[in-house]
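dumping this here so i dont lose it again. seq + smiles for zinc ion
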Amino acid sequence: MSDPVKTREWCCCAGSDQAFVADCGHTQGVEFTLLRCGICGRHWMSLWFVATSSGIYSSVDDKALTQLLNLPEGRKGRRLLETMYDL
Ligand SMILES: [Zn+2]
């Protein structure tokens, strides 16, 4: 998998909305929300770190997107997120 772009501020297209795509649940104190840029349609994962009330955005490529949209239920899905995001 290519290295995702990681950023603290939303920095896709200037002035774009973040469209909600899916709630991917939470694990290890991190809340995962899949978003899409309202202008170019690129997908981003919002990682929100509950303990520090801070978050980052991580770009999502096509392969990762397929996995994220087909995330298994429960523990299996959480394990996959932990692997993908190195938690
Ligand atoms: Zn964009």
